Amino acid sequence: MQQQSPRAGREGDVLAVVSQSGPTVSFFDAASDRHLETLEVLAEPHELLFDPTQRLLWCTTTYDSGYYHANSGRRTEVTVIDADTRRIVEVIDLAPEHGPHGLALDAGRGRLYVSVEGGAGRPGGVVVIDTATRKPVGRIDTDAPGPHWFAIDPSGTTGYATNKEAPFVSVVDLERGTLTAKIEVPGSEGLAVSADHAFVASPYGGSFFDFAEGEDRPATGIRIVDRRTATVVDTLPTENVVLPMHLTSTGLVLAGQARIEPDPDSRLGRQAPGRLSVFSATTRERVGEVEVGLCPLTISSSPDGRLAYVASVVSSTVDVVDLDTLEPLARIDIPRKGEPGAHGLAYVPRAV
């Protein structure tokens, strides 16, 4: 019996993609990759998340321009977009909070979590937003200056914030709104959380060039955290620094390796094609790798776990990968007006 195409049955589904320098959110037909529409948004958008209950897209606006530790100023807004009409319905100003980046959703409780950077006399943290009223209802300190990515466990009771230069991952109790643990790692990037483990990309990508020649660097890879003990119990080694992480509905851990060489003219380094590395969340075995664009920065997947989407910020592309065969299916070019390009991703199933 011939296996059904991973594109089958996706008519009406949409892929939404952020372009930082666009500054835009572009919409594509998930069955054909055909461009549908482009929406202009505030500069400079970063992450994107789909809320299936409200059928809204939440988009963080992080900096006036640039990126972490190399920007012209931190912004304070989260843009709310109607996923079906593809129009902005509200811009939430989180001031005095600034540098909103990571997004995590507890649809059952109607809570959106947004990581924000610290400032004078105040550590970074996580702002809690009521998704029905679209109003901030709380803040949880993470005791680190730059919490960036944020993820919650399947029960919606525990959150994890990776901190680029701080030597730990912050663990927060979402019900009590308190910091409960710090997991020691040499800086961290993206993460994904299952019922039993957290998968953390470490070390911080920027720190990879902060070591003198000949000095020992932390080994690149994915730290596996036992959620019960809040300790690192294993490491999945990678050849290059890992930035984004994602866990599919079928139990695959997806990691985006950025292949970077030092470049005196660029803090981002000299880019070579990146790698999408695929592991089993249960056996921790490497399933395979696929070449993707320059500097993969965000990974998402279809709800059935058959397709992976990898946004690469330097090439401003999205690679579509068949996770059953680990074959690349398409590369979508994302419009930009300079550097950087493609960043946040969200898969929007058709309304039923």
TrEMBL record:
Q: Which SUPFAM superfamilies match?
A: Nitrous oxide reductase, N-terminal domain
- Protein's name in the database: YncE family protein
